[in-house]
Every structure is written in C-alpha cells, then in structure tokens.
Amino acid sequence: MKNISRRDTLKTLTLGTGLGLFSPLTLISCNEAPKNGKLGVALVGLGYYSTDLLAPALQQTEHCYLAGIVTGTPSKAADWKSKYNIPDKNIYNYKNMDKIADNPDIDVIYIVLPPSMHMEYTIKAAQTGKHVWCEKPMAVTVEECQAMIDACKKNNVSLSIGYRCQHEPNTLEYQRIVKEGLLGKVTQVDCAAGYREGRTDHWKQKKEMGGGVIYDMGVYAIQGARLGSDMEPVAVNSAKIWTERPEIYQDGLGEIVEAQLEFPGGVLGNIKTSFAENVNFLNITCEEGTIEMAPFSAYAGNKGTSPLGEINFPYEVPWQQANQMDMDALAIMGGKPMPVPGEEGLRDIRIVQAILKSAETGQRVVI
C-alpha cells in the first residue's frame, strides 16, 4: 500500500468515512479564534520526546504550531529560541508558568515530564485556562488521574492524553474489524511491548519518578489488550514482576512484567512488557481467525494481517505525533470531545495498579 499522507488521513477521519472519528468540524476555538487557523502549543519539558519528536512534528502540523516552551534549563531555552524562532515572551520556566494565562499566543499546554510530575503541572496548566495535553502514562495513581480530570473540568478546558496510536490508521483498522465483528467474537488477546533500555539513570529507573516498565511500555501492552478486545478488563488473574538487572532496577522496580487480564465472558488477555528485550506484537484471536499486528505500537512501520487481508497504512516518523496533535487540535477548534480524554488515561492506571497489587499479593485482583 502506498504511503498515506497526514492530510489524507485527516480528511478521512474528519469526514467520518472509513476509519472516521468525527463529523465535519468548524474551526472555532472554545475561547477565541485561533491564529491563522492554528492553535499555539507550549511544550513543558524539553527532554528526548519533545526534542526529537514533538518539536519536529509541530513543524509538520496543519492545525497547531510550536508557540512556546517551559523549561528549567536556560541553555535549552536559548537553543530552542534560536532553532524555532520562539519569542522571549513565549519562553517560561517552571516558576512563572502561570503567566501563560495572559499569553494569547498559547492555546494548549503539552505536559512532557516524568509521570510523577504530571498531576502537578496538569493542574497548573488547567489553571491558566489553556487546554491541556499530557503524555502517557497519565499519572502514577488513579487518584492523581482523577485530580487532573477534575482540575480541567473546573477550569473549563479540555484534557487529552498522548496516546498517539489511538489516532493511528493501523490501530483504527484493527479496532474497526473487532467492533464490527467481521471475524466474529474475540476469544483471546496476546500482546507484548518492550525494548532494550540502555539508560541507567533515567526517570524510568527511578521509582519515585514513576519509573518501571509497567508505567511506560506496559501501558502499550494494556492498551493493545483493551483496544484489541474492545472490552475493559474485570480482573487481573495473575501478575509477575522481575528484573534481570537488579543493579539498575532496584527496590522492586520492574524491568519485566507479565500479567493475565480477564475480560467479560471469560476472554483472557495475556500481556508482557519489558525493558530487557525488543518485542512488539498484538494477536487478536477471533472466532473466524486471528488479527496479527507486528509491530502494533511503533513510531512507524505498524502493520498486520488477518483473514480479511493486509493492514498496512505506512508513514514516516514523526507522522504519528503530528497526526495526534492535529486531530486533538481539530477537536478543540470544533468544540468536540477529545478523542483520547483523561478518562482513558485513568482506565489504564487503574489496571496498572491492579497488576502491581496482584504481583505483590499473588492473588487475583478485581478491577
């Protein structure tokens, strides 16, 4: 299949055909008309994901643009100012971030920080009256997730979680096959997501910052099982957490996690996530055949097969991130519900906590 363009996908999605999510949208902001038909986005946290993926993606977006940054590192601020021509008035630090409330250039604040900081800065962002996008995992606990949702509702702003795959055409296609029952009912789901993590002093190796594989790659495996079955799990039947590098993953922090989720009707979802090996697949066993996606959650190259034929909508990095932000921007400008709201992030963290509890107790945990 030929490479799919972001413009073609946005057209398909907004017109409600094929993989459609939305009806046609009118470009009207919840607060005011966007500049040049685009929403201004401020990135909070300028680590790898912002630097290597979101900022380049914002050079490709059609409905939003990089308007500002929030960073605690002056040298980064200087580099970004020069590279992206960001005016001084749109550059903030963590102490004066609240001043974004007075900046009409910025419509959306995108939180790209370690998970332990998501609640604090999502609430701060909501209090500015700007819309909020937050990277996954949404937070560390269900209570934190709920506080984020409540803060955004209180301040009448939208909240979206950065699940790029939920905007992605290959994901939408396997979901369509399941939702429409084209291969009958789902009977089992098997999913794994992981890579060999070489860093040793990152937030992913620090429990107090929301580290551990279950909060990072584990969320992809959970999402695969949930989206692949089109159901929410009712229990975690069993879970196991361990590390092959105890000098790096200390104090019980998980480098590898395996769990079995139970869905309604006795459908089982077997998931694995790892910082020790490269693995990425989703197998959805249905009554009339199996959908096999490999990879299912990469930045590019996601594809699969089923008895109905090939699933393959190719694109290049950072298309996913650009597509995600454009779809979210369109929803805001059209006054539509966010495709991936805060409640979606909360669902995953509820499952994460149940997996952690099951692993600790050795017991089945009802969700």
Summarize the structure.
The chain has 367 residues and is of the alpha/beta class.
What attributes characterize this protein structure?
alpha/beta; 6-stranded parallel sheet; globular
How would you describe the overall organization of this protein?
This protein has 367 residues and is of the alpha/beta class. The chain is 31% helix and 21% strand. The strands form 2 sheets. Strands 14-13-12-11-7-10-9-8-15 form a 9-stranded mixed sheet. The longest helix is centred in the C-terminal third of the chain and has 20 residues, at 342-361. It is globular. The N and C termini lie far apart (41 Å). Residues 10-32 have low confidence and may be disordered.
Secondary-structure topology with pairs:
Layout: H1 6-15, E1 39-44, H2 48-58, E2 64-70, H3 74-84, E3 91-92, E4 108-111, H4 118-127, E5 131-134, H5 142-154, E6 159-161, H6 169-179, E7 186-194, H7 217-229, E8 235-242, E9 256-262, E10 268-274, E11 279-286, E12 289-293, E13 304-306, E14 309-311, H8 319-333, H9 342-361, E15 365-366
Parallel strand pairs: 1-2, 1-4, 2-3, 4-5, 5-6, 7-10
Antiparallel strand pairs: 7-11, 8-9, 8-15, 9-10, 11-12, 12-13, 13-14
